[in-house]
From TrEMBL:
GO terms for molecular function: alpha-ribazole phosphatase activity. It comes from Rhodoferax ferrireducens. It holds the Pfam family His_Phos_1. The keyword Transmembrane helix does not apply. The keyword Hydrolase applies. It comes from the Bacteria. SMART domains: PGAM (SM00855). Transmembrane segments: none annotated. This is Alpha-ribazole phosphatase. Its EC number is 3.1.3.73.
Length: 178
């Protein structure tokens, strides 16, 4: 198994906004730059799967225009975590008590009534289990890539917020799993 997981380019949203599952466009020049970098590095025969959110679909479309052999398949399991009513709000406006409640029951709590971390992990794990043996590119989000790092380490379930990886690739950057 060889998996490249690339994060979409910078979304068109103000800094500090919770935008997990919001369907936002990404910066076009940054998307073009990320696609050019990917087109130069990916092998022939690479399978491409993309989140269905437009910031990822944009990158998939530009990449396939540069490399017609890299036609994407859309996969909703590669979407970012859904934060329910928190979506579109400033993180600092959500309130410390709401964030503390999520941290206290990190695996099962549904932030903003959205998706639990455990549900999110199960969704990403289902895609992970189907990635196959050949070279594959996922065009996705920081949360999915963090989940991939846990899955790559053999962790399918976490119970504490401290187990969640803090590091994530920058916009348009790629992580390699082998």
């Amino acid at each position: 198994m060889t998996l490249w997981a690339v994060r979409h380019a910078q979304p068109l949203v103000a800094t500090g906004i919770c935008y997990g599952a919001l369907d936002l466009a990404a910066d076009a020049p940054a998307t073009q730059a990320a696609a050019e970098k990917l087109a130069a590095m990916l092998p022939t025969g690479c399978h491409v799967r993309s989140s269905t959110l437009q910031r990822c679909e944009q990158l998939a479309q530009v990449l396939s225009a540069l490399r017609p052999d890299l036609m994407p398949n859309l996969d909703p399991r590669l979407r970012e975590m859904d934060f329910g009513s928190w979506e579109g709000q400033r993180w600092d406006a959500i309130g410390q008590s709401a964030l503390d409640a999520w941290t206290a029951d990190f695996a099962q709590h549904r932030p903003g009534g959205g998706e639990s971390v455990q549900g999110f992990m199960q969704r990403v794990a289902a895609a992970w289990d189907e990635k196959g043996d050949g070279p594959t590119l996922w065009i996705t989000h920081a949360g999915v890539i963090r989940a991939c790092s846990l899955l790559h380490a053999g962790l399918r379930q976490i119970t504490q917020a401290s187990q969640w990886p803090q590091a994530a690739p920058g916009y348009g950057e790629c992580i390699f799993f082998k």
